[in-house]
Design a protein that fits this description.
- The protein is mostly beta strands.
- The protein has a single domain, classed as Lipocalin, CATH 2.40.128.
- The chain is about 0% helix and about 45% strand.
- The chain has one helix and 23 strands.
- It has a five-stranded antiparallel beta sheet with strand order 2-14-15-16-17, with no helix packed on it. It has a four-stranded antiparallel beta sheet with strand order 6-7-8-9, with no helix packed on it. The chain has a four-stranded antiparallel beta sheet with strand order 10-11-12-13, with no helix packed on it.
- Strand 19 and strand 20 form a beta hairpin.
- The longest helix is centred in the last third of the chain and has 5 residues.
- The two termini are about 25 Å apart.
Amino acid sequence: MIRTNLSFWRMSACSASAAALACMGSSSASAGILYAADGALSTAGNLFTVDTATGLTTVVGALVDAAGARYAINGMAWDSANQWLWGTTSGASPTLANGLVRINPATGQVTQVGLLGLTPPNFGADLDLRGGTLYGWAEGSLSSLITINTATGAATVVGPNGQNLNTTGSGLASNGQGTMFSAPDLATGNLWQVNTATGQLFGATPFSGGSATARIGALEFLGSSLFGVELIGDGVSGITSNQLISINPVTGAISSIGQFRDASTLQFNRYIDAIAVPAPGAIAMLGVAGILGTRRRR
């Protein structure tokens, strides 16, 4: 993900899958809720639900801790065991820059865990919780798969990507069969598979239909459907396009769903850069208010 932050995460009716934050999805894209988070530069963020048919967003709550301090999030993953979201903060987050936090998906309240401790520290990441291990993708000069200690927040580089890529994107997601995918290139680059033991990328599938200068900021599986965040611009010069896309993981075909806009005001939400999906039973347990109003994607 780029220096702006949109993360997403999804709730669904099945088990075991991850994406841009962890996804536990059903085999049908009609079952599930997609969550998103934002924030850029020194701007604090919010937690949203996303209509996967349109890209329209509804605010769940501000990303604040118990003391009222605010956070900008650029990566998320769902933790089914604990029924919360893991989130990474951007390098310019107002609080705990380049750190790991927990997020209450019913309210957006944030709890600090600790700093990632990466060098260089500026970190754009998508997250994927798989087999009890929290993975992330570090952009820029690192351009590597990382693991994150959920007790301390400390990140460890797994290994070089093996493709000599200096990545500008950081989408990361696992499907229901346990295959991890990454989109570290431009939207005109490739969808890669990831060896979680070595960090190496392999099995490139070229994208088609993506915007020429766009980056993939996040990935998330909802059942067998792969969603992503496609961004043009950055947190310095400004985001000119930020939209929800679907990706065919077999062919690499990208389809536009819609710009991230507020469902009530239609105001452009330019700084979404993280998405995630919840696990079985999460909807009932969390009591998320807007679930029944979320449209189903067919």
